[in-house]
Amino acid sequence: MSLLDQNKKDTPIRYLTPLDIEVKKPRKKFDRIKRWGVRPDYKDPDFLMQFLNEQGKILPRRITGLSLKHQRRVAREIKRARHLALLPFVTDLLK
Fold first, then answer.
1. Which residues pair with 52 in a beta bridge?
2. Which residues are paired to 18 by β-bridges?
3. Alpha carbon of 82 to those of 12, 45, 48, 89: distances in Å?
4. Is 42 left (phi over 0), alpha (psi -120 to 50) or beta?
5. For the chain, which terminus, N or C, has the lower number of CB atoms within 10 Å?
6. pLDDT tens-digit profile of 56-68?
7. Phi, psi at residue 93, to the nearest 5°?
8. In this predicted structure, what is the pLDDT of residue 83?
9. The CATH classification of domain 29-95, taken from the options 3.60.150.10, 4.10.640.10, 3.40.910.10, 3.20.20.480
10. In whole angstroms, what is the distance from residue 94 CA to residue 50 CA?
């Protein structure tokens, strides 16, 4: 064996070895409205605030985890609450 072959055996090949990185599985999203049995209502702005970001925008389904039916219902109730001035249309720091 040559010296070059012996050095190849001693050094680990870094780019072929698998990385030992623990990947956390994301938590499964669930429909809060269906699980808790709550019906979204425009008269309850505290509950509707869960579905708004800091700027007052409605969060998308992929973030809230709601079903399409409940996401539409929440959006409709948020818009009603905004119209009655129970929720702001735009803000800087809502939460």
1. 58
2. none
3. 62, 9, 11, 6
4. alpha
5. N
6. 999 999 998 999 9
7. -130, 90
8. 97
9. 4.10.640.10
10. 11
58 DSSP β-pair partners: 52
- At 65-93, the pLDDT tens digits run 999 999 999 999 999 999 999 999 988 87
Displacement of CA 66 from its chain's centroid (Å): 11
What are the residue ranges of helices labelled H in the chain? 3-10, 32-36, 45-48, 61-64, 68-83
| Residues belonging to the chain | 95
Residue with tokens 């409709």: 76
pTM of the model: 0.68
SS3 33: helix
Tokens (6 digits) for 2? 């040559």
3-state secondary structure of 58: strand
Give the closest residue to 89 by CA, choosing from 48, 45, 41, 55: 55
